Amino acid sequence: MKPKSNPLQQLLIPFSLWHSLIKGLRRKSQGIRESGAFLLGKIGGNKVKLFVFYDNLDPECLDSCIISFDGAGFVPLWKMCEKKQLQVLADVHTHLGKVAIQSEIDKKTQ
Q1: C-alpha distances in Å from residue 109, one per residue of 33, 70, 102, 103, 106
Q2: What pLDDT does 84 receive?
Q3: Selecting from 3.90.930.50, 3.40.140.10, 3.40.640.10, 2.60.40.10, what CATH number does the domain 15-108 have?
Q4: How large is the average pLDDT for residues 15-24?
Q5: Whole-number Å distance between alpha carbons of 48 and 89
Q6: pLDDT (tens digit per residue) in 47-78
Q7: HEC profile for the chain?
Q8: Are 58 and 70 in contact (CB under 8 A)?
Q9: How confident is the model at residue 31, as a pLDDT?
Q10: Distance, CA of 76 to CA of 92 (rounded, Å)
Q11: pLDDT band of 95, cuts 50, 70, 90
């Protein structure tokens, strides 16, 4: 009997890339606002190859304490994915404070 595939495939990210991502999120948030990034990997894969910070795509998205990403920021993201033959595997963002949970908005807009 063939095992069922898991729709929530495990994401793999090299430790050095994860460390760079966390360091960058911390720097961009400055402890006073949220920050975030898209995690990119090969099409059909589950290993993160690189990331791109939200504000590299939408320079004004971190101007308030919350992330307000303009849809126009997806255009350079899709172009980058097409050029590098990658896809968005996930995104990650920070919250203010020390609690690591999904906010109500996160739960509603997965």
Answers
A1: 19, 15, 11, 10, 5
A2: 96
A3: 3.40.140.10
A4: 96
A5: 7
A6: 999 999 999 999 999 888 788 889 999 999 99
A7: CCCCCCCCCCCECCHHHHHHHHHHHHHHHCCCCCCEEEEEEECCCCEEEEEEEHHHHCCCCCCCCCCCCCHHHHHHHHHHHHHHCEEEEEEEECCCCCCCCCCHHHHHCC
A8: yes
A9: 80
A10: 18
A11: confident
Distance, CA of 92 to CA of 73 (rounded, Å): 16
Model confidence at 105, pLDDT cuts 50, 70, 90, reads low
Q: Which residue type does 109 have?
A: T
Q: Are 40 and 76 in contact (CB under 8 A)?
A: no
